[in-house]
């Protein structure tokens, strides 16, 4: 947190971009050829699904594999002709279309042998993957650059923070652009909180594939720890569009036929990485036991936000990270390699936000820093700003305090010998005051004595006499 002067929502916002042409969500493939996935792959995926789940009806296979009835029927007929599955009628079935849904399919002896060999290659079972080519088209349509947050959305996300108008506007412009931004300044002034609040403020949904298909390999994209799945919903036909004219759900609504259930509707993803980031994390990770690849963080964050927290303190040098992403940041695509050497062109429609308490000039040279077009400094707060932060924090805690009490805390923080005041100081000191009141069995009060006691245990300063 830093700064004080408020900005009215929408003030100084960049003009909204013109709406992009509507792109429907891909309709469900009507044949194996239309899926873009190898028939052999789908055959083995169906066998593994039956192996894991047990005897299955066609509608159960449709749900588990995310495929339409015509595709599943085509796979079923091929497996039946080859003697890999066997059909048994469902006793007492009284539903519609007995010839289609009145049977359960189980593995034959030959099918058991075939699935054992398939599982040695890959243990992936789940929704059928989507070809990377289809993925690239949809990723661009629903990116934050194509569907930027509105000025009101951004200012609402920033409203809990005490920010100078120039800082607030700089942040709003950077966030609206959907392009890489570096948020820097001393520790304790809310950089990470600001980025996180903005990143998690979206109510919009985007579509992601559960997995990708490339050269016969599976790349898992969906991760329940990252992606928050929500059920598709039909918006009223007369619903007004968003202020910028674009709603991802509108862009993706199917124009004809059922939707492709290989795609999952999720909230805009937010992925945060810190000091644990190493070079290998930027590449496809092969799971030798599972026999499939795991998408790297910037692919999991596609059409959302990737936060590089504590930038410059990773085991990966800042220069190496920026060198690795020069092409992706500028051109909107990345090159990833499979273990066999094949190179994959993958969209890079991720808004990368860097947060650091280091000086930008200590992180990289000017040429590399140009790859990050927006750089916003969060300064240390002055006395007026500390007072406003304290007032808000007291309100949040339900503490009734007088202006004189807040003034006492401000004076205590700005006296000689104290560390430079940071936006986080009022919160931490009030927590210590509440702890002390609970220890004494009394109600917390912001008195000069309580402030002095809190400062004594909070700050490390052997030279200050109290």
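^ Assign residues to that structure.
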């Amino acid at each position: 947190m830093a700064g004080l002067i408020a900005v009215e929502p929408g003030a100084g916002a960049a003009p909204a971009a013109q709406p992009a042409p509507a792109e429907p969500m891909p309709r469900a493939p009507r044949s194996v050829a239309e899926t873009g996935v190898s028939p052999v792959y789908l055959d083995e995926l169906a066998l593994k699904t039956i192996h894991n789940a047990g005897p299955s009806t066609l509608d159960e296979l449709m749900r588990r594999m995310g495929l339409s009835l015509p595709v599943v029927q085509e796979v079923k007929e091929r497996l039946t002709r080859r003697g890999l599955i066997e059909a048994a009628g469902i006793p007492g079935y009284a539903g519609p279309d007995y010839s289609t849904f009145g049977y359960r399919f189980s593995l034959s002896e030959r099918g058991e042998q075939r699935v054992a060999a398939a599982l040695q290659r890959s243990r992936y079972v789940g929704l059928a993957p989507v070809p990377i080519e289809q993925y690239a088209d949809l990723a661009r349509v629903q990116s934050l650059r194509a569907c930027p947050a509105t000025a009101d959305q951004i200012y609402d996300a920033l409203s809990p923070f005490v920010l100078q108008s120039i800082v607030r506007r700089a942040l709003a412009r950077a966030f609206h652009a959907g392009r890489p931004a570096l948020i820097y300044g001393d520790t304790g002034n809310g950089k990470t909180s600001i980025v996180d609040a903005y990143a998690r403020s979206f109510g919009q949904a985007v579509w992601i594939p559960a997995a990708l298909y490339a050269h016969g390999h599976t790349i898992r994209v969906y991760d329940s720890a990252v992606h928050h799945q929500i059920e598709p919903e039909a918006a009223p036909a007369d619903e007004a569009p968003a202020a910028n004219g674009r709603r991802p759900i509108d862009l993706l609504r199917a124009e004809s036929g059922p939707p492709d259930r290989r795609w999952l509707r999720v909230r805009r993803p937010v992925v945060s990485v810190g000091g644990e980031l190493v070079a290998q994390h930027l590449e496809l990770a092969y799971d030798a036991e599972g026999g499939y690849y795991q998408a790297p963080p910037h692919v999991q964050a596609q059409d959302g936000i990737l936060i590089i927290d504590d930038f410059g303190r990773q085991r990966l040098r800042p220069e190496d990270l920026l060198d690795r992403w020069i092409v992706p940041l500028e051109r909107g695509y990345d090159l990833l390699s499979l273990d066999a050497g094949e190179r994959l062109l993958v969209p890079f429609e991720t808004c990368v936000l860097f947060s650091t308490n280091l000086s930008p000039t200590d992180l990289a040279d000017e040429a590399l820093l140009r790859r990050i077009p927006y750089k916003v400094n969060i300064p240390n707060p002055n006395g007026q700003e500390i007072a406003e932060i304290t007032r808000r924090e007291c309100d949040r805690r339900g503490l009734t305090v007088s202006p004189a009490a807040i003034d006492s805390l401000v004076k205590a923080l700005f006296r000689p010998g104290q560390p430079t005041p940071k936006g986080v100081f009022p919160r931490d000191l009030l927590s210590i005051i509440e702890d002390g009141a609970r220890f004494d069995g009394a109600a917390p009060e912001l008195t000069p004595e309580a402030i002095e006691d809190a400062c004594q245990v909070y700050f490390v300063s052997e030279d200050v006499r109290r």
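DSSP finds 20 helices and 16 strands in the chain.
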